[in-house]
Design a protein that fits this description.
6-stranded antiparallel β-sheet, binds 2-oxoglutaric acid, 3-stranded antiparallel β-sheet, Jelly Rolls
């Protein structure tokens, strides 16, 4: 992999205040950026954000997808539920993310929760990371008023500054076989990771906060913030919420828990933008890339310039496959053109 200018989100720079003025940000926006860079999250209140959305209908429509006691999560309901999709692509949310990261946000996954998750502390960077690093975040939207006894979100302000730990850092065994939760090795390694993160969260000195939050308020967390779901004190109560995960333009998304960074072997994700329904074209800060095969599940990431680069980008706009080489990109482009001709 070649990464000539490893960019980071602009708000991490020491001269971020000068950059904020260059971007003509107003006082409210500068305040959000300041909090986000220090704490790793911001809470945004907007009383009207859920107006005109059939939020209550979500739970009727998804009722059959939760356990009888309301436990569990519904992943990617956006593909069938217009309200879930509208929350993921809400202009007020997108505007905050675009302002914070200075890149185009790409909502790519939704999770709906009827009750508190009680999920152990983790960082999203074990599930979703990007090259360049840091271009991923989560948005947690309260779909009812949430008090602490409902099992709120918890997080450790400032913990986003820790290294982006992955299995190699912890000596956790790489997952052998299919990169999916169907593979028992995936859970076995993940449990070891959770133990290590739990110890780091307890020993690192970061304070633990819980989020009591009003309906329609949302929290943006940066990819590396340690967070999870707190215990439900009152198990009769719901805790209706939606998490949407976002990447940003001009980055290559991958799954660290199924990658071997030291070998340059990345479980590259083919991400669909919830807003457009289209697969995104991954690039390294705008530079075209191809993905040489490393093994059945992982790829390298190689920058390609000039005409070959244009071909690679075109191939990914037309086809779901990741081109392994520029020759492969040419094949994919030709196949897409032939298919189009035959369909006419
Ligand atoms: O909502 C929660 O309780 C935790 C959600 C979470 O940790 C996640 O989606 O990554």
């Amino acid at each position: 992999m070649e990464l000539l200018t490893p960019a980071r989100p602009w708000f991490e720079r020491d001269d971020w205040e000068a950059e904020a003025s260059r971007r003509a940000l107003g006082p409210r926006e500068v305040g959000l950026v300041d909090t986000f860079r220090r704490e790793g999250f911001v809470v945004v209140e907007d009383d009207r954000i859920l107006d005109e959305l059939d939020v209550d209908g979500i739970w009727t429509r998804l009722a059959g997808d939760f356990a009888a006691d309301g436990a569990g999560r519904v992943q990617d309901a956006w593909s069938t539920d217009g309200t879930v999709r509208a929350i993921a692509t809400h202009t007020a949310v997108i505007a905050v993310l675009r302002m914070l990261y200075g890149r185009e946000p790409v909502p790519f996954q939704t999770l709906n929760f009827l009750t508190g998750t009680e999920q152990r502390t983790h960082s999203d960077t074990i599930h979703f990371s990007s090259l360049p690093t840091g271009f991923m975040c989560g948005v947690w939207m309260a779909l009812e008023d949430v008090a602490l006894r409902q099992g709120p979100l918890h997080y450790f302000p400032g913990s986003q500054r820790l290294p982006e730990f992955d299995y190699e850092d912890f000596g956790v065994p790489a997952v052998a076989g299919e990169p999916s939760w169907r593979n028992p090795n995936t859970l076995a390694s993940y449990l070891l990771y959770e133990d290590r993160i739990d110890a780091i969260a307890r020993e690192s000195g970061f304070r633990r906060e819980e989020l009591a939050i009003r309906r329609g308020t949302f929290l943006v967390w940066s990819a590396n913030l340690l967070h999870g779901g707190s215990p439900r004190e009152d198990r009769t109560l719901t805790r209706k919420s939606q998490v949407t995960h976002y990447y940003f333009s001009d980055a290559v998304p991958f799954t660290p828990m199924h990658s071997r960074r030291s070998e340059g072997a990345f479980a590259v994700r083919r991400v669909r933008d919830i807003g457009t329904g289209e697969l995104i074209v991954p690039t390294l800060d705008g530079a075209p890339v191809v993905f040489p095969v490393r093994d059945e599940w992982t790829r390298g990431i190689r920058r390609v310039d000039g005409f070959a680069g244009k071909l690679a980008t075109r191939a990914m706009a037309l086809r779901p496959e990741l081109p392994r080489s520029t020759g492969d990109a040419l094949n994919l482009t030709v196949r897409a053109a032939v298919k189009k001709l035959l369909l006419r």
